[in-house]
# Entry
Amino acid sequence: MVRAGTAYDCDVLVIGGGIVGLSTAYAITRAAPGTRVTVLEKEPGPARHQTGRNSGVIHSGIYYRPGSLKARFAAQGGAEMVKFCAEYDIAHAVTGKLIVATRRDELPRLHALVQRGRENGIPVRELGAAQIGEYEPEVRGLAAIHVATTGVCDFVAVARRLADASGADIRYGTKVTYIDRRPDLGVAVRTDDGTVVRGRVLVNCAGLHCDEIARLAGDEPHVRIVPFRGEYYTLARPDLVRGLVYPVPDPAFPFLGVHLTRGLDGSVHIGPNAVPALAREGYDWRTVRARELYSTLAWPGSWRMAGRHWRYGTGELHRSFSRTAFTRAVRRLLPAATPDDLIPTPAGVRAQAVLRDGTLVDDFLIQEGPRTVHVLNAPSPAATASLPIGREIAQKTLAAIGRTPAHA
# Structure
């Protein structure tokens, strides 16, 4: 499919029209004007999966290990996201958030978060139990921290704006079925309608399917995507919550726990919990895809992860099947909540990379190969961090085709 003397349809071929893929296209054309970028997205529009099915939170970066990509890109990306939304008149608000300790054994972890926030350059205010009510009158806890830089925005609108501003050739409803990568020439892909698209370099931003795309291209990713469904409810009495309220997270997991998020429309999202999905896009228990489920079960890391964290997983599953149990988790933060206050709302699926030894990859993971750049782990806070992530990928991509960024 790729032969010497063959004309290229584009310089850069991006697979995936979520916020990371579109930010990458935007960053490439900004850094090297005239670079031809084509984006292939199997859905009929942008941001249909992780980007469009999350809490809409602009994260501060307080949780992440100092020096990690998540820490660097979340703090930087959050500030840039607010600026981007303001510049393009996209709905957003910087609300701040509370992280609340409700048990004594959480107090050391809360203090560790204060220290981590300071190491990451994030201003935090420590609160005693009586001070929590200044921000959230209905929330109870032993202590809390207030993080002023957290906010909310419409990430789908951001993705659409990035698509428009990139100038890329974006092809929706186009699924990649075959990849021919020639290290000395370039990459050609065949789509589900038989079209062949040829480029100098391939960028894989396929999210829930990124490991499969890497293997199609002939690169071994050394991780597998294990999909975790995050189940949400909407609070029937949104006046109980003013802003964003989080529990103290368990440092053993990349999940933040059941939290309360007041959205731009005034509604309050509750969740998510995290349960195994039975398909890459398994947004409910009824959606089962045998091939994808087999891929998860055949990966040794899935079983090692389950063996290591079965207690945590059992609790998450219990909350999935029992609204009463889910309510108990909510009532730790919001005692006034009742089961009748919880209205089911659409779920999301997190594309979590897991190593062969069962370790959950905790940082963003970008892997390069000949003529390829693969984004193999970009769950939350990737939407927040999408602008600097896009620039990082753009830098690697332009180097692969020997282009010098205009600002270098």
Observations:
- The first helix runs from residue 19 to 31.
- The chain is about 30% helix and 25% strand.
